[in-house]
Amino acid sequence: MVPVSILTGFLGSGKTTLLRGLLRDPRFARSAVIINEFGEIGLDHDLIESSDENLVRLSTGCLCCSVRGDLIETVMDLIRRRNSGELQFDRVLIETSGLADPAPVLSGFMADPGMAENSRLMPVVTVVDAKHGWATLDEHVEARKQVAVADRILLTKTDVAGEAAPLRKRLGLLNPIAPLMTAVAGQAPYELLFGNSGASEIPGFGSFIATANAQAGFDLHDPQHTHGIVSFSLVREKPVPAVALALLIEALVEHAGSALLRVKGLVQVAEMPDRPAVLHGVQHVFEPLDWLDQWPSDDRRTRIVFIGRAIPVNWPRRLLQAIESESF
């Protein structure tokens, strides 16, 4: 399984600088790089120090639009050439256009059988400019979506803008799941951002637990809104029957799929109470449930975090209650 990392962030946030530094690190030097530039003339690929054969430029459009299919085929072609011995690399790094919405890209990856069979999607890294980030979030919905779907957020240019405490708070409201890290003097914590994590680990798991850990019963985390994007959590003491969970996922996909930027959770399934199920969804696509060998703490409550657009915060709770009342 080839690890595939997606690096996103708005125009000028510092993605290419981060990628250039990453490839200088011996731990990540053996990487195949795909760069998506929006426009007919691309420059980023000239700024990346990588072997030409392991560097692919996609400039026919934005990854979230016409190029999505091209991207999947490009990744699969790289993997085929790696398997045949033509190329040598340990991972694939994808730098999206600054205008890209990563959610459709993630959905495409998760839904493609070839990708699921041959690659492992790593945590999504979003870069935010500390100097201009607040204004960018105000003016561009793409920037807000890039933050909302992130598994890791990297704040850059703090040497110019300072610690940017208001921006940090806003990023936490947009995405309560993702750990917020900082690039210091041009150096980033590459291993924490792009390093290998276990297949059953929820990216940002510690932050996810902190978000929902103080809740009880069916209490919901106070919803936080920023320009139409809402984040809230559903926490429940009572185990969820497996069939009710399956019907809940089906209903979420059918009635709110396009509005679901990210769904993550640990679910106590009634039929397997000692092994939590990992729930992970992006828009219309949910990954097959993964099962941890054991609960990571004494807290065995179901905890699900939702990040999306215009989703009534009480709807998932009421939907699950309705499903259970009809089915059991």
Write the layout of secondary structure elements.
Elements: E1 2-9, H1 15-24, E2 31-36, H2 44-47, E3 55-58, H3 68-83, E4 91-95, H4 102-111, H5 113-118, E5 119-121, E6 125-129, H6 133-139, H7 141-148, E7 152-156, H8 158-161, H9 165-174, E8 180-182, H10 190-194, H11 205-212, E9 224-226, E10 229-236, H12 242-256, E11 260-267, E12 277-282, E13 285-286, E14 290-291, E15 302-309, H13 315-327
Parallel strand pairs: 1-4, 1-5, 1-6, 2-3, 2-4, 6-7, 7-8
Antiparallel strand pairs: 9-10, 10-15, 11-12, 11-15, 12-13, 12-14
Helix pairs in contact: 6-7, 12-13
For the report, how would you describe the main beta sheet?
8 strands, parallel
Count of DSSP helices?
13
- Mean of pLDDT: 79
Task: List the secondary-structure elements in sequence, H or E.
Answer: EHEHEHEHHEEHHEHHEHHEEHEEEEEH
Measured distance between first and last alpha carbons = 40 Å
Coarse shape: globular
Low-confidence segments: 38-53, 59-67, 197-207, 210-223
Instruction: Provide the CATH topology of the largest domain.
Output: Rossmann fold
CATH class of the largest domain: Alpha Beta
Give the helix proportion (percent range). Answer: 25-40%
- Computed over alpha carbons, the radius of gyration is 20 Å
The total number of structural domains is: 2
CATH architecture title of the largest domain? 3-Layer(aba) Sandwich
* Strand composition percent: 15-25%
Number of E-type strands = 15
Output the structural class: alpha/beta
- The CATH homologous superfamily of the largest domain corresponds to P-loop containing nucleotide triphosphate hydrolases
